[in-house]
Design goal:
about 170 residues, mainly alpha, 7 helices, elongated
Amino acid sequence: MQVSKVGELIQVIASVGVLIGLALVFVEIRQNNELVGAELRAVRMVSYEEMSRHEIETDVRTLFHRSIEAPDALTDGEILKLDSYLVNIVSLLQQDAALQQAGLSTYRTDDFSNPGAFYFGGRFARAWFELNREWIAYTTPEVADGIARAIESTPVQNRFEYIEMIRERL
């Protein structure tokens, strides 16, 4: 009789040990996910930083402003440069969406009012988006829908209005 009680006690202790082990595995997986999320956010920030540095070095900002002021006057080379720039913007927004879907970011991909207006508010960028909307929607429909909503509903229609809003607050 005593041997069976010892056996039952060992089973209970082993079961508790298994539960504690599972709890530790759960905690470690959660910590790992948080670390992966932090690494991915850091990579995303580096991407934004590199893109900003590229904008300054190649003077793409001036070109982007020209695309708003006089899109009909752009050369073929300038259009291709802007095309590459907008593809990079969409790629970064798609990375944000992937992080959110994976639960690794709290960035809301259903609200692109700021980047949507800032990057896609001008006539050239709107035309570019309409031409490329299908492939964007194929890969990440939430990004395409977010940009479309931002273009349609945002009060800031382009970078010039954004700059004017900043100047008014100075």
